[in-house]
Each structure stands twice: as C-alpha cells, then as structure tokens.
Specification:
heterodimer; A: 471 residues; alpha/beta; 2 domains; ten-stranded mixed β-sheet; 11 helices; B: 269 residues; Rossmann fold; 10 strands; 25% strand; globular
C-alpha cells in the first residue's frame, strides 16, 4: 500500500488543502452533461434497479422540473442544471479492502486520512467517490449483532422490505425542488439499520468526495435506529477546487424509534465552488434522542436546515450548528424543530463566523403543533463577525399553535472586540494567534460535544481558515 | 546588569485628546515604584500606553527597555521583551481555557523566536509549573480548566492576573489598581502574591488608590501624577502622606497641572 507523502504543489489554492483532484480517464462510466428522462433511465439501468424505483425516479424528475427555484436563501443565479454531470462511476464496485480500491482513489483517501482513522477509532467506514461507494467496512461483531451498514444502492437490492418501508417516507420528492432532484438521480449514500437494544460505541464514518469538474453528487442516506438502540454517524466531505461549479444535493432520512439515541455529525469542508443544497430530516419517537451536530465550512453556498420531527411524548431533539463563511461563501444554515406531540423538547445552538466578506445566516424554525402541550424549546444563536466586509443575518421563525409551551430564543452578534485582542496580545500572542484563539473559544461549546478526534479536526480546520487572515 | 525601563517625555492621546503631557520615569529591575494621583490624572493611560494598546496613541517621547525603543512595537512584541500589565478590568474570553491560554502565552514569551504553529511548552512540565504557582497563590487548581475570566468574581480575576504574571515572569510589571474593588482578604492574597513574585528580577509599577498593597510591597519611589504629568517624586513616606492627607497640597503646589486635571476629570464624567 502506498504511503507516499501528499504532494503539496497541486493544492495551491488559497488556504483550502483538499483542492487537488485525480484524472477521470479510467472511469467506468460518465453520463453526458444535463438532465432528462434518458439520463434518469440510464442511471436506473446502470444500477439494475426494480421497476418501482425507476418509476419513482421519473416521477421525481417531473416534480423537479415543475418546481420553481426557491426565491429565498442564497443566490443560485449561476447554478446551471444543464452544465452538470449527474452520474459518474469511477470504479467497478465497492471493495472491502483498501488494497483493491483503484490506486488514484485510494491515494486520495490516504491523503484525507480515512484508512488511518478507520484503524484507530471507527466502527465502520463508507467511502463515496463521485456517485458510487468505492469502499465499505463494518466491524465483524456489529455485523453479527444484525447491524447493517451498506451503501444505499446495495440496501435496495439486499434488504428490499425494510428499505421500501422507510425510503422517501420522511422526505418525499414533493418536499422541495432539491429533494425532488435527489430523488430522480440519487446514487450512493449510507444505509444503516441498528437492531433493538444494540449500542454502537464507536462512530460509523462516511466520507463523500467529489473529484470531477461540474460534478453533481446526490447521495441518499437512510438510517433506522430501532427501539433502545444507539449509534453515532459521522460524515465528512471535500472536493477539488475548480473555476466552474459543482453541485452537492443530498437527502438524509432518519428514524429513531422509541428509546433510541442517534447522533449525526457532519464536518463538511467543500471547496468554494460547490453548491451544497441538502435536505436532512429525522423522526424521533417516544423517549428517544436525536442530535444533529453540523459543522459547515467551505462551499460557495450552503443551504441546510437539519430537521427533527418530535413524534411522541418524551422525544428530544438537539441541533448544534457551526458555520464558517469565508471569502465568496454564503452559509445559510440552521435547524428545524417540529413538536408534533406533547412533552417533547428541543434545543438549537447555532454559532456562525464570517470573515473576508463571507456571509453567515442562521435560518431556523421552531413549530409547535396543536395539541403538543408542555413542550420546551430553547434556541441560542450567536454570530461572530471578524471584519467590516463580512456579514451575518438571523431569520428565526416560530410557529406555535398551542398555549402551554415554553419557547426561548436568544440571539447575539459580536465582533471580535479590540479589548479581547489587546488582552491576549499583551500576553505575547500575535494578532493572528489571538484572533484564532477567540474564534476557537467562540465555537468551543460545540466542539467539546465532538469525539476527541473530530474536535481536533474541527479546530485544525478553523485554524487553517484563520491562517493569514489578519494583516 | 539589571534591565531598565525608561520613559522619556511621553505624550499620549486618546481619540485625539491629549492625556499624557510629558511623562518621565525610570524603573530598574528589582525596584518597586508607586504611581498615585487623583481620578483623571492619566495613571491608567500610562499603563495602557506602556503595554501598547492601539487606541492610546503616542504622539511624542519614547519608551525604551535597555536602550531598545519599543514605542512603535505591538503589544505582543513588547510582552516578548518583558512588559506585563495586570489589568484593572481583566477581559473575559469565552471558551478559551485558562491553561491553554497561559501555555500558549509562555511558549511565545520564553521562546521569542517561536513561529506560529510551532511546538508549545511541554504539557507535563507546564502542568507541574502552573499547579505549583496556583497553589502558592491559594487558587483552586480547577481554575486552569475554566474559561478565561468567564464568570470569575472580582477577586478571582485579579488573582488570575497575578497568576499570569507569575507564569510569564516579566522584567517589568505594571499593576493597574489590582487592589481596587476587592475585600480585605482578597487584597491580602494579591499583596502577598506580588511580594513573593517581585524580587531582583522584576521592576514593578503599582498604580493604586489604597495603601494596603504598598504595605506588603513598600515602594522605593512614589510618583504623583496630576494633569497628565509626574509632578512630584518621593519615597514610601510620600505615598503614606497622600493616603493620610489627600491631594489638596499637591494641587496647591502645581496649579497648572491641577487645572488640567480638573478639566480631564470633568470631561470623563
């Protein structure tokens, strides 16, 4: 196995260190650019899918085409759906050993540190490259306990009943234009089933890598955590830096049954030419706990509002969101909490940082439906603006159809205070070190929720973002 | 050779308003100086100007450490040359742990050529050292894990300043009303802490309205500031006299400075 040190020379784009890319010459299959019934049919055929899925895709395409672009959130004027590759298959199939993964691709994951992390602290790994998962593993004892961790295409083939019971039930194609797009062209993503009472101690990790220019990546993730079970899933994402745009539009559906606990952590670090338009939603049943930990770095525009529907009494939902908007980036991120049952509780903590002209927006919804009495919700969103060119805005929506509820909302916007900088600098820290320390401190309440390895990674990414930022 | 902090004809403006109007002072390592004066006389301005606060514009004169002119240097560069300011109002830095901050700071101070991102002082030796200093100052070691000054009481903040001073081991320490707003127990702890730390290796400038800190740390010189300049310099007995009798006589002897001071005081209200 190759252990060559990564070449730095080809990175060379600003501070973004994952901007390198591989040749696409040896790909198994590339669709032509653009989207129509033929392309959708081709994807379905490539995957050898049952007829119902092909019909579902074609119906979703119609919905996608009939819906207008959203007129809120970020600027998508430059997003040209005809200039995107909707499906690319880089390798023959999914391997169980890194040695069997094509060399270029394997080297990419080496550089991203995935095989190393797998050895140290992961219970299972899925590596998706372009449209398909190229590597998968799961600890043997978990497999023996009935845990399923596969790519979503394999789940459709190998576990059709449980798949069909849940697929597109939480986020139907009618939900929004981008959910419809994903439903039409979805490929890859993770499928997880955790049987009743099974607790997975170490994280399951998925890593999504875009490699080609003008690539569209549309993974579809479906996770079912059965009664009293628990798990933690972590996803990371990067892409090469190109002058033209790529599109990432995932759909993630999660069910956490009675007494289950599930945490979904994202550390997204897209290059700044990626539109990241994602729909993520979980249903949490009685006495369960669902948590989103959402770290959004990079991308050109991210619109992402992970949602939790609290379906039965005792369900709890929590979203911790960090967004870092740098030059040319707009992070429109937040959370949705929908209280559908009495005695449910939710918490949203959002921290956004904007610098070098970046824009960080918090957009959140807390909804309490009629009859959902004795609900509690607490929303805290803080923004830190590092320079006068940068921007932050807050769009909190609260819809309450019930009297007996407790909803709290706090928002703050702060600039790095001169007095904080001076205090730290008077102790010998340079201005850059002092700024980085203040930013790291600002997100510390969220970072400390991450497993140690990811906390280190998150702090490292933030420091990279901060490097050379102060003149 | 002991180090020398030399302030020559220092003029400082804040938001274009002249505050210091020609301050001269020489502090040697190992000496304790007291700086006294009524409100609005410019004591804190001198402290901030020495530490390098960007809002305190030096419009004339020089500050030198051992002949090196530091007037134009940034706060962090001055800190690396041995300058330290114990703040009157220490700043809260949410989410930054005391231990992480101090470890980073001493790594820079003790290795002034350290580049950003280079290794920090070893964790094991650092832990041992900070624990010992905290115990000497009667601080709960738990404080090392708390966020810097976040939720600290007034006394805890001041003790944190003294802890930083103990860890950074500056050549010159300015204490800006470190004894203000504290109860007598806290003043005693801070005073004793300073007495333990100051020695032949440290020159100290104590800015105070009270006598307690000076009882534990008797000054070799007492300077009286009025209207943005040092109008009188004496020994420890001058500090005692001012505590007992106030500034009326000083004002009488320096009417021009007293008029400036009255103006500054009125403007600050």
């Amino acid at each position: 196995m190759s252990t060559d040190a990564p070449e730095k020379a080809d990175v060379g784009v600003g501070d973004y260190q994952f901007g390198f890319h591989d040749s696409t010459d040896n790909y198994e299959f590339k669709s032509r650019k653009g989207l129509d019934r033929e392309i959708v049919g081709q994807i379905s055929e490539m995957k050898n899918e049952p007829g119902w899925m092909r019909d579902f895709r074609l119906r979703s395409l119609e919905i996608f085409e009939s819906r207008p672009m959203p007129n809120w959130g970020g600027d998508m004027a430059d997003l040209n759906f005809d200039d995107i590759f909707y499906y690319m298959k880089a390798a023959k199939g999914q391997e169980r050993s890194w040695d069997d993964v094509p060399e270029d691709i394997r080297k990419t994951y080496d550089r991203l540190g995935i095989p190393e992390a797998e050895k140290k602290y992961l219970a299972g790994v899925k590596a998706q490259y372009e449209s398909e998962v190229v590597y998968g593993s799961l600890q043997e004892d978990l497999a023996k306990q009935g845990v399923l961790f596969t790519d979503t295409d394999s789940a459709l083939r190998d576990h059709p009943e449980i798949f069909r019971e849940h697929f597109a039930k939480i986020i139907p194609p009618e939900d929004n234009k981008f959910a419809a797009l994903n439903s039409a062209v979805w490929s890859g993503g993770s499928f997880i089933y955790v049987p009743p009472g099974v607790n997975i101690d170490f994280p399951l990790q998925a890593y999504f890598r875009i490699n080609s220019q003008n690539m569209g990546q549309f993974e579809r993730t479906l996770i079912i955590v059965d009664e009293g079970a628990s798990a933690h899933y972590v996803e990371g994402c990067t892409a090469p830096t190109y002058s033209s745009d790529s599109l990432h539009s995932a759909v993630v559906e999660i069910v956490v049954k009675r007494g289950g606990r599930f945490r979904y952590t994202t550390i997204q670090n897209w290059s700044s030419n990626v539109y990241n338009l994602v729909t993520k939603r979980a249903m949490a049943y009685g006495d369960s706990l669902m948590e989103w930990v959402d770290g959004n770095l990079g991308s050109k525009l991210t619109m992402k509002y992970p949602a939790i529907y609290l379906m039965e009494p005792g369900a709890r939902g929590e979203t911790l969101s960090i967004a870092f908007a740098s030059k040319g980036q707009h992070q429109d991120a937040g959370a949705k909490m929908v209280h559908c049952a009495p005695h449910t509780s939710s918490r949203i903590v959002s921290k956004s940082i904007s610098k070098d002209g970046g824009r960080g927006s918090y957009r959140g919804l807390v909804k309490v439906e009629d009859g959902a009495h004795h609900c509690k919700s607490n929303v805290v969103c803080d923004a830190l603006i590092l320079d006068p060119q940068s921007k932050s805005d807050t769009y909190p929506y609260i819809e309450v159809e019930e009297q007996d509820v407790a909803i709290e909302h706090e928002a703050s916007v702060s600039k790095i205070a001169e007095e904080q900088l001076f205090y730290l600098m008077s102790r010998g820290l340079t201005e850059a070190e002092a700024s980085a320390m203040i930013v790291t401190g600002f997100i510390e309440p969220l970072v400390k929720e991450l497993p140690m390895e990811y906390a280190v990674e998150m702090n490292r990414l933030i420091e990279l973002q901060m490097e050379g930022s102060v003149g | 050779m002991s180090s020398l902090l030399k302030i020559t004809d220092l003029h400082v403006s804040v938001a274009d308003t002249p505050i210091l109007k020609g301050v001269n002072m020489e502090i040697r390592q190992g000496e304790i100086h007291a700086l006294m004066g009524p409100n609005g006389s410019g004591k804190s301005t001198l402290a901030y100007a020495l530490a390098g606060h960007p809002n305190y514009e030096i419009t004339g004169g020089t500050i030198e450490i051992d002949g090196v002119n530091i007037t134009e240097l940034e706060a962090d560069e001055r800190a690396r040359l041995g300058m330290f300011l114990a703040f009157q109002y220490p700043v809260v830095i949410p989410g930054v742990k005391v231990a992480d901050f101090i470890r980073h700071a001493i790594s820079n101070i003790r290795n002034p050529d350290r580049k950003e991102g280079e290794g920090l002082v070893g964790m094991r030796e650092f832990r041992k050292e900070i624990k010992a200093r905290m115990e000497e100052l009667g601080m709960d070691v738990e404080f090392a894990r708390r966020y810097l000054n976040d939720g600290f009481s007034g006394g805890e903040k001041k003790r944190m300043e003294i802890l930083q001073m103990a860890m950074l081991q500056p050549k010159f320490a300015i204490l800006d009303e470190t004894d203000s707003g504290l109860d007598s127990d806290a003043v005693r702890v801070v005073s004793e802490g300073l007495a333990k730390l100051s020695g032949p290796e440290m020159g100290v400038l104590i800015i105070t309205h009270h006598e307690r800190l000076l009882e534990y740390n008797p000054p070799k010189y007492t300077h009286v500031m009025l209207g943005g300049r040092i109008v009188e310099t004496g020994d420890a007995s001058l500090a005692h006299d001012l505590h007992a009798n106030g500034y009326a006589k000083i004002r009488e002897r320096h009417p021009e400075a007293a008029a400036d001071n009255a103006q500054a005081e009125a403007a600050s209200v």
